[in-house]
Amino acid sequence: MQMLTPLPAEDWDDQARDALACTVAPERRNPADAGNALSTLVRHPVLAGRFLPFNSYLQQDSTLPDRIRELVILRTAFHHGCVYEWGHHSAMGRRLGLTEDDLTSAQTGSAADEFDQMVLDAVDELHSGSRISPLTWERLGTRLDDHQRMDLMFTVGGYGTLALALNTFDVQLEEGAGTDEFYATPAN
């Protein structure tokens, strides 16, 4: 049973559209183009208006290299069993250079690349113990500065929180999501 459905079109109002204003292009601030996750989150426009800028920072302005950010999000989505996050971010990751082997690594937690393995280990530590160990923090520091390591940690937390919401509300992955064709359309 779906706990929350996307906000019906007839219930969209200025408050729902305003909740998306700081993160979503004007042409997507409507029930037909916002996608299932955003259309569900705007059921609570005050919360959405506060959470989405943080999520937008993590996705667009984080100091993490794009490829590493997507690897972190995918490992987090895998830990939470979040089909919605996995569907969208596996396609985003591919567009940013992740290979099928990288996607498999995000699922198994085992990477051939030493640095990717450090990143996956950090995500696993945060997921299982709510902290990055001093040794992993130090190892990450060989390639990431303090801001990037902080962004890594907050990316795990932010996308973990989003995964909890998407899973609890049973937000459905849009038809075609996870494919390049889906993201090539103007509405998405």
TrEMBL record:
It comes from Mycolicibacterium frederiksbergense. The keyword Metal-binding does not apply. This is 4-carboxymuconolactone decarboxylase. It comes from the Bacteria. Keywords: Lyase. Residues 50-123 form the Carboxymuconolactone decarboxylase-like domain. It holds the Pfam family CMD. The keyword Lyase applies. InterPro entries: AhpD-like (IPR029032), CMD-like (IPR003779). Gene3D superfamilies: AhpD-like. GO terms for molecular function: 4-carboxymuconolactone decarboxylase activity. Its EC number is 4.1.1.44.
